[in-house]
Amino acid sequence: MNIITANNISKVYGNGDSAVKAVDDVSLELEKGEFLCILGRSGSGKSTLLNLLAALDKPTCGKLYFNGRDIINISGGELNKLRRKQIAVIFQFHHLLPYFTAEENVLLPCMNGITPVKNEHRNTARASLDIVGLSGKHNRLPNQLSGGEQQRVAIARAICSSPEILFADEPTGSLDKETGDSIIALLSELNKKGLTIVMITHQQDYAAAADRIINMENGKIKINSY
Ligand SMILES: Nc1ncnc2c1ncn2[C@@H]1O[C@H](COP(=O)(O)OP(=O)(O)O)[C@@H](O)[C@H]1O
Ligand SMILES: [Mg+2]
Question: What kind of fold does domain 34-58+80-225 have according to CATH?
Answer without folding.
Answer: Rossmann fold (3.40.50)
